[in-house]
Amino acid sequence: MMTRSARRTLQVAGAGAAALLALSACSSSDDSSSAKSDSSASASSSPKLSGTVTVFAAASLQESFTTLGKEFEKAHPGTKVTFSFGGSDSLAAGITGGAPADVFASASPKTMKIVTDKKDNATEPATFVRNQLEIATLPGNPDKVSSLKDLTKSSLKVVLCDKTVPCGAAALKALDASKLKLTPVSYEEDVKSALNKVVLKEADAAVVYKTDVKAAGSKVQGVEFPESTSAVNAYPITLLKNAKNPEAAKAFIALVQSTEGQKVLSGAGFLKP
């Protein structure tokens, strides 16, 4: 038979065990609540993106950035990406002159410097792709252009980008490297304008980017030339200081630099950064 003293000891032990179980359950509940609270805080720290992102981008980025803009809008319902494509120099001048934009993607560090010299950038420009020159000729290459030297023939109507535009500066660099002199029938304000002269058969050839030749498809024929390797352009991108939608702008830049974005750009013919 259990003594009164023994029964009292068991009762005390049982009460202590129950207290420990209650404390443990309470602690577990608190941890769970804390985890949920932390999770909620994490979710709220990533606000839903909305509004318009205005992107100023080099003309050669038109096809690939348009695709990325659609992908961005699909991934972030409620957003809209608007683009202004053109010569990097004129876009940079517009930005420093106060034109409203969130992102600037230039076709050369030199034109990006126009913006950074005025401290109109909010982040350090980062190279996201590179691009190489190619000769665009009429379909079928009826003039049998096979080299940069062939473009110096007086019988050919050749178009270049203006030297203030990255594609024009790169073309002049390639010509200098090969010690060639070329007098074009016109200098165009951006690479798309130069290419269009050939598409419309207003010129026999133009020195443009590989990406533009690829985008034109059967409308032109591309001719590679070795001197182009000495004039490869790096493309930098930056968030602008006066961006009206900085969070969405940062997200668009992240998409451009992502694996998905790089896949679209390399598919358009761009080289890796």
Q: Explain this structure to me?
A:
With 273 residues, the protein is of the alpha/beta class. The chain is built from nine helices and ten strands. It has helices at residues 4-44, 62-75, 88-96, 109-117, 166-177, 191-199, 210-216, 246-257, 259-267; strands at residues 51-58, 79-86, 103-105, 126-131, 133-137, 158-161, 186-188, 205-209, 221-223, 233-239. The N and C termini lie far apart (87 Å). 38% of the residues are buried. The model is unreliable at 1-45 (pLDDT under 50).
Labels describing this entry:
elongated; metal-binding; ModA/WtpA; ModA; alpha/beta; 9 helices; five-stranded mixed beta sheet
Structure summary, number of beta strands: 10
Order of helices and strands: HEHEHEHEEEHEHEHEEHH
Sheet with most strands: strand arrangement: 2-1-3-10-4
Structural class: alpha/beta
Biggest sheet features: 5 strands, mixed
Outline type: elongated
Note the beta-strand portion: 15-25%
The number of helical elements comes to 9
The termini sit apart by 87 Å
Mean pLDDT: 88
Helix share, percent: 40-55%
Unreliably modeled segments: 1-45
Using only C-alpha atoms, the radius of gyration works out to 30 Å
Quick recap of the structure?
The protein has helices spanning 4-44, 62-75, 88-96, 109-117, 166-177, 191-199, 210-216, 246-257, 259-267; strands at residues 51-58, 79-86, 103-105, 126-131, 133-137, 158-161, 186-188, 205-209, 221-223, 233-239. With 273 residues, the protein is an alpha/beta fold.
